[in-house]
Amino acid sequence: MRAIRADGETSLSVLGTLTPSLVARPDGAFLVRSAEPLPAYPRRLGDCLRRWAREAPDRVFLAERNPDRSWRRLTYAETLDAVMRVAAAMLKFDLSPARPIVVLSGNDVEHALIGLAAMEIGVPYCPISPPYSLASQDFAKLRFAFNLLTPGLVYATDGAAFARAFAAVAPPGVPRVVARGADAADALEFADLLAATPGVDFERARAAVGPETIAKFLLTSGSTGRPKAVINTQRMICANQAMLAQAFPFFDWEPPVLLDWLPWSHTFGSNHNFGIALVHGGTFHFDGGRPMPGGVEETVANLREIAPTAYFNVPKGFEALLPHLEADAGLRAHVFSRLKMLFYAGAGLAPEIFHVYRAMAKRETGRDMPFVTGLGATETSPSALMCLMDVDEPGNMGQPMAGVELKLAPIEGKLEARVRAPTVTPGYWRDDELTRKAFDDEGFYRFGDALRFAAPGDPRGGFLFDGRIAEDFKLATGTWVSVGPLRAALVSALAPLARDAVIAGHDRDDVAALIFPDLDACRMLADADDLDDPKVREAFRKRLAVFAGQATGSAARVERILLLADPPSLDAGEITDKGSLNQRAALQRRTRAVAALYDPESEAPIRAH
Predict the structure, then answer these.
(1) What's the pLDDT score for residue 137?
(2) Residue 225 pLDDT > 60, yes or no?
(3) Which end of the chain has the least Cβ crowding within 10 Å, N or C?
(4) Are residues 180 and 266 in the same domain?
(5) Is the backbone peptide bond immediately before 382 cis, with ω within 30 degrees of 0?
């Protein structure tokens, strides 16, 4: 990490500052706060839409590709008019927090209008990840979500595509609305909602919306794989945007221009990114691309037209985009032409990706460009810590944001991150027990993530991720294994052959791992999809041997790995719909594979020595 100037300022002027102070308590806990005050924020998110419809009515707010590749654009004035009409139409249904709106499909203009309209009249809505409807075979998670939420209206863009899901879980009598394919889903047309005219009832409903009003429910699986509905209030979302405005003052220099694919069923894409565009009067372009082969090409095509002022993505997205940027000077020049910041979240970023992007940005712009991350959760809407320092390596979570109190509580030899802030959820919908467990006796939300000081005892150096408390385990020797950092290090060491890993070894003599291989990378070594091919196994063995040889102790050394032919299962809860691996669920589902790892007679594992 580079030295931090004495006044706490960073050399990257597009970023704000955080000046943390530390209090060490007698119970072994640390309290960390930043001196910067939380800026004022509106009572409700809809106030921002009205502000920009008044101050910049003709500015484009939402832009989405038409089937013919042209752009469908809605200005702030047009968006507000449509939102008010849809909200007025919603008043005709029996909607309430106990009967919210559920959205089954992904990001698009109609989804945006539905969500904003619901918040206008104080009706929560819940965007559910499309794989729950389209990729699942048994609809178990979707059915559980419907039973938990008891929706009063269900929306999907395409009635034909979501007809199976509608038929499987939508209760009889609950209205269905679709943008197209109404006959296939026995649904109303979204266009019919736009025919409503707001009146006295609409104004009365809107006036009742305040900071404590539930804006939305966001589902998160957690360690159990069972969806939990996180309550998101108007205060949470608006306060989070005030924190972000303090951290990134350049959003106020010019209206932000964003190109974004991140799903609104998750807090990063919805509260964070969509909220940034709305609060600062920016333009939000819908990116139909995805960070995978056959999907990233759409993102590339969009980036040839749209030059963002900030670019948000998950690490896999930055990895997928990188070869295209490296190969095309014109694309690079356009992407960086007005870019102020790169931002990653959702997972750890490989150091080599971090360094390549920083070097590329420097060559294209002539200046250092921040590549930012932080710590957050669905329960914190999402931001809690942010790294606004100029760091030499990825992974620093930074310091508490304005208005956040961070407590580092000692537990099982680590420091668990806990926070109090206006951005923290009041709890989980209809689950008092989960809510109780999520908070400590001082009202701090428990992340379940461990942090450690980047510079011992000095919060000015920021904090590093130190694993998930619930995932860690002890070897038979009593040595603790920190699963999160070990898993990340192992996957990096096996790159590009491994996509992810499941760490095993609870009450065993040593650590072993199940590996989800990158089949495309493995095909470069073998003539077919054969993980038993000697070339594939030898490539893994060499990388594992190097990794084991560099280990500093038994808790950091992986002795054996087993390659898994089948990918992690969404229905079994092994992987979340945003692609995060559920360590506990994978171990429970693959007990035979774990047994093979520790069977001295088995030839299936690849051994480090």
Answers:
(1) 83
(2) no
(3) C
(4) no
(5) yes
Contacts (Cβ under 8 Å, ≥6 apart) of 102: 125, 126, 128, 145, 146, 149, 151, 153, 154, 155
Q: Which residues pair with 376 in a beta bridge?
A: 383
Report the CATH number that the domain containing residue 477 is assigned in CATH: 3.30.300
**Do 279 and 396 reside in the same domain of the chain?**
yes
Please name the residues in contact with 144: beta carbons below 8 A apart, sequence gap of 6 or more.
226, 227
Question: How far, in Å, CA of 191 to CA of 365, rounded?
Answer: 45
In terms of pLDDT, which residue wins out, 60 or 477? Answer: 60
Q: Provide the 8-state DSSP code for 378.
A: G
In 241-373, beta strands by DSSP E = 257-260, 283-286, 310-313, 341-344, 371-372
Q: Which of 283, 239, 279 is nearest to 51 (CA)?
A: 279
What is the model's pLDDT at position 528?
62
pLDDT of 346 reads 81
Look at residue 59 and tell me if it is in a domain.
no
554 class by beta-carbon count within 10 Å (0-12 exposed, 13-18 middle, 19+ buried): middle
Query: Could you give the 3-state DSSP secondary structure of residue 407?
Result: strand
Name the residue among 56, 483, 29 with its Cα closest to residue 254. Answer: 56
Reduced to 3 states, what is the DSSP secondary structure of residue 167?
A: helix
381 and 248, same structural domain? yes
C-alpha distance from residue 68 to each of 143, 180, 249 (Å): 36, 17, 37
Same domain membership, residue 524 and residue 454 = no
Residue 539: which domain range? 473-607
Residue 1 scores a pLDDT above 70: no
The answer on pLDDT for 223 being more than 80 is: no
Residue 478 — left, alpha, or beta (φ > 0 → left; ψ -120 to 50 → alpha)? left
Count of domains forming the chain:
3
**What is the pTM (predicted TM-score) of this model?**
0.86
What is the per-residue pLDDT for 572? Answer: 81
User: Cα–Cα distance between 81 and 78 in angstroms, integer?
Assistant: 5
